[in-house]
Amino acid sequence: MRPALALLLLALAGCGGPVSQTDGRAAYQALNCRACHRIGDEGSPSAPDLTYVGFRKSPQWLNLWLKDPQAWKPDAMMPNLHLTAPTRHALVQYLTQQKGQALGDHKPWDAPALAKDPVERGHVIFGRAGCITCHGKGGIGGYPNNNVAGGKIPALTSVWETYTKEELIQKITRGSIPQKADPAGPDPMIDMPPWGQVLSKEDIQAVAAYVMSLKPADAKSAAGF
Ligand code: HEC
Ligand code: HEC
């Protein structure tokens, strides 16, 4: 889009009109989220990749997170940016639209160097599609959920002994909705997304091969997003 048009849309949004995707994108640029995050090929790999963030996280959760990351996850490294409500809403709208399209058909895990190594290919998917943002580095766990037994999203370091490869592929393809710890309480905010909607069969097989390879000891040495 031409800069003049983007400015015009920003000005219109500032007059109380509906918040457009353009100002969410502009806010994302202006606030320099890309100094830490990546969408498509742009930005930094030092924090979670946001290319699929709109597929894996709900608008309600994104809003809560951007308001106060530490309220959801006390040890979160993301700073509280003290955003105004309109900026936050515009960002939520922009993030909600990120369902993988920014990568087009250049998936980083399709690099020729990974073709013969499904486990490493799966490792790249685990990071870039964002399994890591719920299950932790090396599947070590520790990420919160509300109203679930133990208050956490499951670790994946003993899947190799509790699942067959087929069951695991089914689980990743279809996703699942966690049971409430207190039946009278609210729904948990975080579900296991149905990855069959955005990943190919081959991609799911590769990420399953990676998950099958995870042991508690490996998780300790895993680093980075
Ligand atoms: C200084 C680096 C830094 C900046 C700047 C930053 N973030 Fe983050 N962000 C992080 C880190 C680190 C995490 C992971 C927190 C964790 O897992 O404990 C994170 C997590 C997130 C998540 C959750 C990812 C997921 O899928 O669960 C979202 C969404 C997010 N950031 C959006 C933003 C937006 C939008 C901006 C700009 C307004 C921004 N961040 C600026 C470091 C940063
Ligand atoms: C938005 C958060 C989120 C993301 C992203 C996510 N998961 Fe999950 N996952 C969950 C939740 C929550 C559960 C628990 C579901 C339940 O209790 O029914 C779960 C459960 C699982 C399980 C079953 C674990 C067990 O002990 O039974 C596997 C395996 C799994 N996820 C793999 C993956 C893989 C592989 C990816 C990436 C392709 C992924 N997950 C991405 C939230 C997520």
The domain count comes to 2
* Mean pLDDT over the full residue set: 91
Number of helices: 12
What class, by secondary structure content?
mainly alpha
Under the CATH scheme, which class of the largest domain? Mainly Alpha
Helical content band: 40-55%
Task: Describe the global form.
Answer: globular
The number of strands is 2
The unique ligands bound to this protein are: heme C
Low-confidence stretches: 11-17
End-to-end gap: 31 Å
Order of helices and strands: HHEEHHHHHHHHHH
Major sheet characteristics: 2 strands, antiparallel
Assign the CATH topology of the largest domain: Cytochrome Bc1 Complex, Chain D, domain 2
C-alpha-based Rg, rounded: 18 Å
Give the second-level CATH assignment, the architecture of the largest domain: Orthogonal Bundle
Could you walk me through the main structural features you see in this protein, from its secondary elements to its overall organization?
With 225 residues, the protein is mainly α. It folds into two domains: 3-101, Cytochrome Bc1 Complex, Chain D, domain 2, CATH 1.10.760.10; 107-221, Cytochrome Bc1 Complex, Chain D, domain 2 (Orthogonal Bundle). The chain has twelve helices and two strands, in the order H-H-E-E-H-H-H-H-H-H-H-H-H-H. The chain has helices at 3-14, 21-30, 53-56, 59-67, 69-72, 85-96, 118-130, 132-135, 159-162, 165-174, 201-212, 216-221; strands spanning 38-39, 42-43. A two-stranded antiparallel sheet has the order 1-2. Helix 4 (59-67) crosses helix 6, helix 7 (118-130) crosses helix 11 and helix 10 crosses helix 11 (201-212). The protein is globular. Bound molecules: heme C (2 copies). Residues 28, 31, 33, 35-37, 47-48, 50, 53, 56-57, 62, 65, 73, 76-79, 81, 91, 95, 130, 133 line the site of one heme C (HEC).
